[in-house]
Amino acid sequence: MRKNVFLMGLMSAALVAACHSNPPADQPAPQPTEAEIARQRQVQDSLDAVARASAEAARVARARADSVERVRVAAANAAREAAERVARKTAELRTELAVAVHFDVARAQLQEDDREALDRKVAILKANPGVRLRITGATDDRGSDKYNLALGDRRAAAVRKYLIDKGIDVARLDVASSGEGSPVDSGKDEAAWAQNRRAEFVIVSADSPLALN
Question: Is 0.85 topped by the overall pTM?
Answer without folding.
Answer: no
